Amino acid sequence: MNGAVPNRADRSLAPPERAPDGGDWRIMSTDDDDNRGRRERMVREQLERRGVRDARVVAAMRKVPREDYVPAALRRQAFDDHALEIAAGQTISQPFIVGYMLQALAIRPGDRVLEIGTGSGYNAALLGELAAEVITVERIPELAAAAAERLRRAGLDHVHVRIADGTRGWREEAPYDAIVVTAGGPDVPRSLLRQLAPNGRLVMPVGRAGEQRLVRVRRTGRESFERELLTRVRFVPLIGAEGWRGDGTD
């Protein structure tokens, strides 16, 4: 299925009150003093102490209410140092990994960014604080609809949700200055490499479950790329034509 999630009200794309796993998935803001304090501790103890110190990334993670992007039953765990399940077998990554990947992308204020794997919309919201325009692609329609509503309510009109096979990117609006993939594939999809702008950066996990490494790729020429291995990670599988099959195998 390919398509854009419209900004206008559309009953077929309205965010469900119940997640596909049966959990409460209603959209509400909980950005109060207690959560702001817990968010500040998250940034200080999980990011800055472990090397994520890019001023713009840190400011974005202080600002965006992570607790609004997890199911209601898990909001007290939103700032914990581990990934959380959201819906449809997907996860929101632990805060440190989110910040680490954003820092590795070196996003500039005027950049156009492609995200593969919208999930709850949290990472897209952070990208919206860092970049001029964000295209975020999600293959699961229920997640795309709920994320689009959260992003709309956050006032992030320059963040656009698309429903498609993310392994093929979003060619219609390429090229992109930065591409981030929030699921692990067998290798970097060729379609994504082709959609990188000159000097563009791509960050994604590569490898089988339990053996994944975060990879950073920079486009140095028409058909030339520099590839750098970063840290070990653990992500859900990247499903699609240039990723894993639906059962997570190649």
CATH homologous superfamily descriptor: Vaccinia Virus protein VP39
Largest sheet, in brief, is: 8 strands, mixed
Q: Mean of the pLDDT scores?
A: 90
Gap from first CA to last CA:
21 Å
* Rg, Å, rounded: 17 Å
In which order are the strands of the major sheet placed? 1-6-5-4-7-8-9-10
CATH topology: Rossmann fold
| CATH secondary-structure class | Alpha Beta
- Give the overall form: globular
* Low-pLDDT ranges: 6-17, 19-28
Helix content: 10-25%
Give the CATH architecture.
3-Layer(aba) Sandwich
Please report which band the strand proportion falls in: under 5%, 5-15%, 15-25%, 25-35%, 35-45% or over 45%. Answer: 15-25%
Total strand segments = 10
Order of helices and strands: EHHEEHEHEHEEHEEE
Which labels suit this protein?
single chain; 6 helices; alpha/beta; 250 residues; 10 strands
Summarize the structure.
The protein is an alpha/beta fold and 250 residues long. It contains 6 helices and 10 strands. The chain has helices spanning 33-47, 55-63, 95-105, 122-130, 141-153, 190-194, and strands at residues 3-4, 84-85, 91-92, 112-116, 133-138, 159-163, 176-181, 196-206, 212-219, 225-233.
